[in-house]
Write a structure and sequence with these properties.
Elements lengths: L3 H4 L5 H14 L5 E2 L11 H13 L11 H15 L8 E4 L2 H12 L5 E6 L5 H7 L3 E8 L5 E2 L10 E6 L12 H14 L2 E5 L24 E6 L12 E4 L4 H11 L6 H12 L4 H22 L3 E2 L7 E5 L6 H12 L1 E2 L1 E2 L10 E5 L4 H15 L3
Parallel strand pairs: 1-12, 3-4, 3-6, 6-7, 7-8
Antiparallel strand pairs: 2-9, 4-5, 8-9, 10-11, 11-14, 13-14
Helix pairs in contact: 3-9, 4-9, 5-6, 5-8, 10-12, 11-12
This protein binds pyridoxal-5'-phosphate.
Pyridoxal-5'-phosphate binds next to helix 5.
């Protein structure tokens, strides 16, 4: 009964762990969730107020499919000013979440049999999107000892390569690609006529380093689809608001896909997006300072008990090497059932990441401290 297209698509591993954790919670256990990818903070009030005002104004009708003009303009201005991209408002598509933007971009680029390069580990939804589009994922491993940067991208390119997906800062590693690596990817994309999707959803959550958009490198303007959204920077996961932007003509195809599927992002949510981009930004540095303190607490704690983990440069994830204790799947199961700490196994993010677990530290310092004590009791020092 099920289409061949969907038969090989697995349930998201991050959600599976969350479901398991919820089951244990229902049984009365105090489960600490290190598995979900969302800030634990509330959306800033000025943004919520903008949505309420919009609703009261009566913005309850269909929006233009690619978004309300005010938001597309605000996004284009942001991309020009902050990301050094030369994007017109007409080339911005506002989507219900960045995930939809990634999906539209992948469907617009790939044909059956085309290859797409993902860096391993990669966010859980890229590979299923590639499969749904009929494409084939080629995993290029990242180097844990070099802030999870790739080592030899060129060796993964074939005549069938149509797409490279860049996600810096990365989910699940928190790593940031260096300027040299982004330049190397750009050179390969130009030489081999490859499109790049640059998923920059964590660009605002960075410690000590700077964000660089690959689309701003010379020659990349016409072959990059930049994806971003409001979920992480403004704690707006449930609002479902994201966008994509490109000066490539692919824009027309992605627009068609959006208009025949989801139609548009929710109208009053888009007005909240205008306020998010144009209003007070002080929420972001405050959030980043708190995440940095949590990162240090977590990674210091893991290293002190002998678990190998680098300090991630961005996002709110740590990717720890647990090979001394078993593979990532076994360790996650042990942590959940014995320590009541829910993390995500590295296997969810790619075939080269079996020895790792992802720990999302978007939870309070107090909970991180308790989780560390429990992890130490279960895994001990090796
Ligand atoms: C790398 C990456 N891209 C995209 C998304 C999707 O974000 P949104 O909530 O805007 O759909 C996520 C969410 O976890 C993510 O981690």
């Amino acid at each position: 009964m099920v289409s061949r297209r969907l038969q090989n698509i697995e349930e998201s591993a991050t959600l599976r762990m969350t479901n398991l954790a919820n089951e244990l919670k229902r049984e009365g256990h105090d489960v600490i969730s290190f598995s979900l990818g969302e800030p634990d903070l509330d959306t800033p009030k000025n943004i919520t107020d903008a949505a309420v005002e919009s609703l009261r104004r009566g913005d309850t009708h269909y929006s233009p499919s690619p978004g309300i003009p005010e938001l597309r303009l605000a996004i284009a201005e942001k991309l020009n000013k902050e990301n050094n991209l030369n994007i017109e408002p007409a080339h911005v598509i506002v989507t219900p979440g960045a995930k939809q933007a990634v999906f539209e971009a992948i469907l617009a680029v790939l044909d059956k049999g085309d290859e797409a390069i993902l860096f391993d580990p990669a966010w859980v939804s890229y590979d299923p999107c590639i499969k749904i589009a009929g494409g084939k994922t080629v995993f290029s491993p990242l180097d844990p000892d070099n802030d999870f940067n790739p080592t030899d991208v060129a060796s993964y390119i074939t005549t069938k390569t149509k797409l490279i997906v860049v996600n810096s800062p990365s989910n699940p590693t928190g790593g940031i690609f260096s300027r040299e690596v982004l330049q190397e990817i750009a050179d390969l994309a130009i030489d081999h006529n490859i499109t790049v999707i640059s998923d920059e959803i964590y660009e605002k959550i960075i410690y000590d380093k700077e964000h660089l958009s690959i689309g701003s490198l010379p020659g990349m303007e016409d072959r990059t689809i930049t994806v971003n959204g409001f979920s992480k920077a403004y704690a707006m996961t449930g609002w479902r608001l994201g966008y994509l932007a490109t000066s490539h003509e692919l824009y027309t195809s992605m627009s068609k896909l959006q208009s025949h599927s989801v139609s548009s992002a929710t109208t009053f949510v888009q007005w909240a997006g205008v306020e998010a981009l144009k209003g007070d930004q002080s929420f972001i540095p405050e959030m980043v300072t708190e995440f940095k303190a949590r990162r240090d607490l977590l990674v210091d704690g893991l290293n002190n008990m002998g678990i190998k983990c680098n300090y991630p440069s961005g996002a709110f994830y740590a990717f720890a090497d647990v090979s001394a204790y078993g593979n990532g799947d076994n360790v996650c199961e042990k942590l959940l059932t014995e320590a009541y700490v829910a993390a995500t196994p590295g296997s969810a993010f790619g075939p080269h990441s079996m020895d790792f677990i992802r720990i999302s530290y978007a939870t309070s310092r107090e909970r991180i401290q308790t989780a560390l004590q429990r992890i130490e009791q279960v895994l001990g020092y090796k």
